[in-house]
## 1
Amino acid sequence: MTKTSDTIDYGSRMHDAMRGLIADLLRDVAKTGLPGDHHFFISFDTRHPGVAIADWLRDRYPEDMTIVLQHWFDGLEVEDDRFYVTLNFGDSPEPLVIPFDALRTFVDPSVEFGLRFEERPPEDAETQTAEAVEEAPFAEIEPEDEADAPRRDAEVVSLDKFRK
């Protein structure tokens, strides 16, 4: 194995793990459908390589697009790096191909769960040092006491919030 860096890129690994979680969820939905009140809002970068959408959709959503998997969707297939789904746009079924690397957000408002994927400049992994991690040890991150916390609406969690 060739050593390519002096640091472990935890941020990229976390993003990969969360994309894997979404892939697993979509595989389950493809097999058994959406349980209960679950539904997903999925936003993605329409300019990302590998995204395949109709030209008229790309014209309407030149940078990003949010789709909803809830009442009507068809042909949901999941591969390791992308998923395929057909959605209805004004009585016009349109097939979509969305690579997991193109995802920006994934939200299931029925259970107040959300993820946000931030784009990181490639040099971030190289500039992170052990000293930067030492400045904010995990002991300083205190969990919120759920009994005292006010009830909040669905929250999208940015994984970058945990990076230094």
## 2
Amino acid sequence: MTTVALDNVTKTYGSAAPSVDSLSLTIGEGEFFTLLGPSGCGKSTTLRMIAGFITPTSGQITFDDRVVTQAPPHKRDTGMVFQNYALFPHLNVGDNVGYGLKMRKVAAGERARRIADALQVVGLDSYAERRIDQLSGGQQQRVALARALVIRPSVLLLDEPLSNLDAKLRDETRTQIRQIQQQAGTTSVYVTHDQAEAMAMSDRIAVMNGGILHQLGTPREVYRRPATAFVARFIGRSNVLNGVVDGRDGEIAAVRLVDGSVLHAPVPADGPLGGVGPGAEVGLSVRPEAMHLLGVAPATSGRAEGTLHARVTLIEFTGSQCMVGLALDGHDAPMLLTIPDTDDLPAVGDVVALRPDPARIWLVAT
């Protein structure tokens, strides 16, 4: 198994802003590591620099202690699974899987054994003689995965491999890919813009935007403790409420929102907000499921510290839950609240009282 390290890697094209800007990260042995972000964020460029298809403008890439920054793709010992599968239509499944072994001049007997083993791993052991056009999209994706794994790469690279599948097949195939990767134990770098894929499959996630790394952490860390307003909004749904720090008591900041409400949030131990103090402009990330509906607010009642008053603008029934749209005075973006379905829902136009769970409010950089 191999450790992949990027040290201050930058890629620029002409005078344009960097596609990837001073990116440093380390991917551990056997880790399933995901580069996540919107289109144009630099994630695919990063993957292609790891693969050797693109040379960094500056910085260094290493596999274990071996510097591969300038090494061509065939000298890096990587396996690649492409978005469009890149299978050879004139070859059957077995020959597609064994193509890389043939190019490496692996003996015919050993090649046949390894092809059979790879097809068994991906659950296609009886498909060796099938034509590619006889396979479903999900089966073709597994053939592409077997072809990448059969050469026993030190690093497996996957470039949005599920984007051409329908929603149900994506869910099934992502589970299979993760199980196969765990079985093989191969260090893997996965690129996607789909947050659900990233959350479900990854050991760790690097969230990128505009060529910059915004946050690196486990799925739970990134979801529950987003580092920036971008991460909070991109990973799942989140209400990001802008405010000003009123005061700080140790590791807890009191933040006054634009409507005058005051909420308390822990200050991150590190990062740009570690030294935040009174007067600083910050954001508060509150997930829709982390707010409690207290009921319709009496017209004459004031706001208790730690609560919000907001007007109901929308109610959507989604099955076991309801999504409630809310408008908070002075806050431009609509707020969202997720609550269990009940016969006692507020009506559109009602002003309701809400109490965000203090343990689920998180300070973010805006």
